[in-house]
Amino acid sequence: MNKLIAIIEDEPDIVELVSINLKKANFQVEGFENAESFFRFLKTRQPDLIILDLMLPDMDGFEVCKALKSQKRYTTIPIIMLTAKAEETEKILGLELGADDYVTKPFSPKELVARVKAVLRRLGTKTDEPIHINIGETIFIDTEKLEVMVNNKKIDLTSTEFKILNLLASKKGFVFSRESILEHLWGNEKIVIDRTVDVHIKHLREKLGEGARFIKNIRGMGYKIEE
Ligand code: CA
Description:
alpha/beta; binds calcium ion; 5-stranded parallel beta sheet; globular; Arc Repressor Mutant, subunit A
């Protein structure tokens, strides 16, 4: 079955242009002119990826992102944000809220389709990695269900936080530079500054509670997991 992409965008021209290009690339597409109609749809079907405009008539795109990421069953749906604002702070806010990528208007529909594929590929590559990883006796990661338990209690991570934890845990003791973490998260699209990694790690540590002690910051180098 073809993957379903939801576009939440109030400009019909953009929805049409993006839809045509996504359909050409064998995706199913559903367009929504506001957040309300999208959330109504979400009760019936879950898209594989969401393209989300920042400026919507009824709700701010950040709010939509936050609402999705705060609900367990939606937190793993990747989000690409569309925005006319290219400012760094906007990008950081979007990424902190769990958006997986960012596209600034005006964009080429081909580029957007490429981004959609890249995000889906990034999330879909599980190859021969182990399904379960434990850190000490405290943290258990299920890379198939995308779940993390701390002391047998499930915690909710954004997709970005999960990806960072999973990356660090995949090679315990190895120091990952901020740059390599960013590359893992967003491929070669170097649109974010280093500080973003620190922000995600900070949130991740807060959520890990007692398990936070395993994530070590190596000054001037990056981060690693030490048991
Ligand atoms: Ca708009």
